[in-house]
Amino acid sequence: MLRRFAGLFHKDSMTALRNYYFHIVMLVALLFVIVVRLVIPAEATVKPAVYYYMGYRGDMEESFRDIIGVSEDEHAKVFQVSSEKEIVEKMKKDFNSLGMVIKEREGRPLVKFIVQGHENERVRNMLVLAVKDAINKAVYKDMDIDTVYLKKDILVREIPTNENVLPMFILTEPVLLGFILIAVLVFMEKEEGTIRAYMVSPGRIPEYLASKITLMLILGLLSAGIVTSLVMGLKADYLSLFILVALGSIFGSSLGLILASFFDNISQSMIWIIVVSIPLTLPFVSYFIPSFAPLYIKLLPTYSLLFAIREAVFPSGNTGIVYSAAFTTAVAGLVSYILAVLAYRRNLARS
User: Fold this and answer.
1) 32 and 56: one domain?
2) Is 110 inside a domain boundary?
3) What pLDDT score does 247 carry?
4) In a domain, 194, yes or no
5) Is 148 a domain residue?
6) 150 pLDDT more than 60
7) The model's pTM
């Protein structure tokens, strides 16, 4: 079994070399590094716009004005409107926006938040707590507040925008690109008749598929290692990163194998490659707009994987997200691989 696998892997590696797979992966990785360093600005923002209406005229009005004034100084997208209705109208036109109404109820100030509905619950809670904290500081100015850090050794730094796109590339190029490259590799062998010849040999389908997945895994690790080392140096958690990339490559490659089993060439499968790829990249929206995290995106394996890769690239001590994503991706990869084996047995038997 191991000898057959080694022979298959050697053949696949030679095919990848002849077709410049390794060259393509390294070239794309280097181009990405150039774009990160020279094209993408280090400072940019995708913070949501905030529309507010001040309908409160009580004793605390000045304190609220001060709080909003500080927010306007720190955030360019804070806008005052003339009514609560206008907030709703503007939010309907602005996907990435929030609303806040400050009015009076029974002589006391009432703060009401208006959200889109797709926001992450944690983001909503943070928004409420941030406003409460600002109000408390403005009203109770003499209050002493001490903060105790349980993990003082954790250094949380603001991530530059250009570096912040690195986890997206790692998920896209090493993991999702394997989804396409492995399909192309299978189509080449279908046209050459290699698969039919293999089927009449002592070889088995699990070994045949595992060889190709291993090749994509190595390409993924190579790409992730190049871009991460050139962008982050020694700051990343490479052990966690390589584990996540390896598991992600297995998952993506297995999906590519399943898809390739139903078609004879890349032209026939292209529309389905696009159809499958789009949902897998939806977590990119939540990555840049954390408030947007509906359940259908959070259930995608690439959602947890993307944020776990981010933790590995920018370690903050939250290793739980890495372990959770590794387990989820491993299960998804195992299920996908089993389905790929079953798909090839079924489709090749019928061909």
Assistant:
1) no
2) yes
3) 95
4) yes
5) no
6) no
7) 0.72
Structural domain ending residue among the three candidates 108, 139, 170? 139
Same domain, 24 and 84: no
Give the least confident one: 105-109, 241-245, 248-252, 299-303.
Answer: 105-109
* Same-domain pairing of 37 and 53: no
Look at residue 18 and tell me if it is in a domain.
Answer: yes
Domain, as residue range, for 319: 2-41+160-350
Q: In this predicted structure, what is the pLDDT of residue 250?
A: 93
209-229 pLDDT, tens per residue?
999 999 999 999 999 999 999
The whole-chain average pLDDT of the chain stands at: 81
Band (pLDDT 50/70/90 cuts) for residue 138 is: low
Per-residue H/E/C for the chain? CHHHHHHHHHHHHHHHHHCCHHHHHHHHHHHHHHHHHHCCCCCCCCCCEEEEEECCCCCCHHHHHHHHHHHHHHCCCEEECCCHHHHHHHHHHCCCEEEEEEEEECCEEEEEEECCCCCCHHHHHHHHHHHHHHHHHHHCCCCCCCCCCCCCCCCCCCCCHHHHCHHHHHHHHHHHHHHHHHHHHHHHHHHHCHHHHHHCCCCCHHHHHHHHHHHHHHHHHHHHHHHHHHHHCCCCCHHHHHHHHHHHHHHHHHHHHHHHCCCCCHHHHHHHHHHHHHHHHCHHHHHHCCCCCCHHHHCCHHHHHHHHHHHHHCCCCCHHHHHHHHHHHHHHHHHHHHHHHHHHHHHHHHC
Question: 96 and 69, same structural domain?
Answer: yes
Q: Are strands 97-105 and 49-54 parallel, antiparallel or unpaired?
A: parallel
